[in-house]
Predict the structure.
Amino acid sequence: MTPLPNHNKSFHPIHDHTPQQPEEESKSYGIEHYVQQLHETAEKLLQDHANRGDVKMLSVALKELRYCLKVFAKYADRRQVTVFGSARLAATDPSYLQAVDFSRRIAEAGFMVITGGGHGIMEAGHVGAGKENSIGLNILLPFEQHPNSVILNDPKLMHLRYFFTRKLLFVKECEAVALFPGGFGTLDEGFEVLTLVQTGKSHLFPIVMVDAPGNDFWRHFLRFTKDVLLARKLISEEDLHLFKVTDSVEEAVAEIVNYYRVYHSMRYVRGDLVLRLNRAISDATLKQIRAEFTDIVKGGSFEQTNALPEESAEIALLGLPRLVFRFDRHKLGRLRQLIDLMNRD
């Protein structure tokens, strides 16, 4: 597999995907504007006579995020996959071996691997990817969690006090998530990722749930999702397209790599969803999209264009063609189907 093209993360889709007020969508502020807002917010904490513990929490979170964003910025030209799974699985466990194989193949495809930096599946992800392709986000717990030997003392290992900042980085910095069997933490991370993608609070990316051959951990999850959540209309049929359950490493890797075959990334411009593409789609595919996806358009149709004037600051992406339309933001599962169709072009 060949490495993916450079991906400009300086304007990550997660920043643009949150709905804004119309007057805010049309404005483009510089970094200085937002730094000034940070200063003003900090001053208001004094005016509010805020609780010392609350201010300390905000201070620690901001310092940790600033440092971590600085580290991640060094690898902005590399796509990354976040790997979740149990810290309790031994190196002989079939799921551990599956995670090693997956991470080795995904690194060969040009991705870096982000894990929590600990043992079990986290260690397996780094063993497979190798030190140079590994990033760790270690959590500081009341009982000490030691980093695994692959990422130990590496400058790409970061330590965080709070789960909420750690989980933010897991999702913000990745272009795919791979879930292996795990306990409460893994399920928490998996459900949060699904929620963020389903609600449009994160950019859309592949989510694969990987069992070892003969293991049925994620098959149980899929059965529960269909027999309980879907049957009781707590989710929609289209939501099932937001993730994939498999016991094949080859299939899991292909799910991620093929997602970026034509599709590159997304952002919003003046209320329109702009899909950046690695290459233009054919007239036949565009015609098919216009015929089959009218339900996700709030007005107008699908137009294939060049970069919009509002995207001029994203110099590395200016040469990519675009598919632009007024998206119904309730239809993220259908949007995933559209992207899959483009990738088969």
Remarks:
- The longest strand covers residues 297-305.
- The CA atoms of residues 262 and 342 lie 6 Å apart.
- Residues 262-343 form one domain.
- Residues 1-6, 10-26 have pLDDT under 50 and may be disordered.
